[in-house]
Amino acid sequence: MSSYGAAPIGTGSYVPEKVLTNTDLEEFVETSDEWIRTRTGIHERRIAADDEPTSTLGAKAAEHALHAADIDASQLDLIIVATLSPDTPFPNTGCHLQRQIQAMNAACFSIEAACSGFLFALETAANFLRNGMYKHVLVVGAEKMSSVVNWQDRSTCVLFGDGAGAVVLSRVPAEHECLLASEMGSNGHHSDLLYIPAGGSAQPVTPEAMEKGLHYLHMNGREIFKLAVGAMADACSKVLSQAGTSSDQIRWLIPHQANTRILASVGKRLGVPPESVFMNLHKYGNTSAATIPLCLDEVVRNNQVDEGEHLLLTAFGGGLTWGAQLLRWPHPAPGTPQNDKTN
Ligand code: ACO
Question: What is the pLDDT of residue 246?
Answer without folding.
Answer: 96
